[in-house]
Amino acid sequence: MNHAVMPTYGRTDVQFVRGEGAWLIDEQGERYLDALSGLGVVALGHANSAVADALSAQSQALLHTSNLYRIPLQERLAERLASISGMDNMFFANSGAEACECAIKIARLYGHTKQYTEPTIIVAESAFHGRTMATLTATGNRKVHAGFEPLVPGFLRVPYNDINSIEKIAANNNQVVAVFVEPIQGEGGIQIPDPDYLKGLRAICDANDWFLIIDEVQSGNARTGKYFCYQHSDILPDLVTTAKGLGNGVPIGVCLARGKAASLFQPGNHGSTFGGNPLSCAAANAVLDEFERLDIVNHAASMGTYLLDRFNKALLGDNRVKEIRGKGLMLGIELTSPCPDMTQRAFDQKLLINVTADSVIRLLPPLIINQEEADRIVDTICELIKQS
Ligand SMILES: *Cc1c(COP(=O)(O)O)cnc(C)c1O
Q1: Which terminus has fewer CB within 10 Å in the chain: N or C?
Q2: Domain 50-294: assigned CATH number
Q3: Within 6 Å (CB) of ligand 1, which residues are found?
């Protein structure tokens, strides 16, 4: 490995030189089926030509002006995302963690308008919200915290999918400003809460005048078969963060806000040099065009049902499998014991996946996969599980 790069990742020793849809091609010309999409990013597959054309054209017209001036592509993207989401306005950043930082800042500002001295945000066990100081504090994973103390104050942790523990806090703590959760925990092992969880959170936030902040960095952008995962639940959050799939590989993050949450920031409260620049917004607008043209939300929903159904049938009664979970193309197969070698064994079969929460095989394939590619994912994984 290269010693000039900090060793923050345990990398597989392969270099991809090119991509084609759901496939990545290495230096030797070997083809790998990408069932992870660069961690849920390349939703439209590799080398999507509409995104490439938009980037090429924009790079020749204008890359960057800063947010000191109006950016028509940013305004257009904001209007489209507002209409898709039911939210009122948004702030553009460059990553998921930055989008989450923005939501945390808005929630704290809300607390200060109520004269709270210690605005507190309720977060969940096994959550993942990023690697900056505030978002790593919000993350519910000891490994992410270790060595980086002191953590940021103002967070209270509760078990995921547990409304009662939040009700207890409501009765005892008068500094709470928000509940901040993922609608499906991604890094936490594709944990899908009860169908009425978000509704329950919405009710408790309404009763206490708290913001409901939904982290859709991974679950958003059509991944679960709705544009945003909270849209399965018939609620509207106060703040939504998203990033990964929005730029198809071009860095972009966004924090969407509604109602009171939409009117807190004033000039000088927050900013980003690169956020929402013409290049990243050209990419995201092209992504939304392609989503519409290919009816990607419905395609992700139906391919997800197909994959889940095939996994359930193929692995029925297999005692190595604890649970198969999925919504749209966000799927996890939890084994009964840790499977750290599964990523490498799949790689040897030219299939790219990863393992999260020690024993969960995570699949985030590109949303454009076809049935043949889906079959190949199922056949390879089931074979690997049966050999283990
Ligand atoms: C990946 C992820 C983040 C962090 O996004 P970055 O772009 O890596 O900063 C935050 N929240 C969730 C749910 C994620 O999956």
Answers
A1: N
A2: 3.40.640.10
A3: 95-97, 100, 128-130, 182, 186-187, 215, 217-218, 243
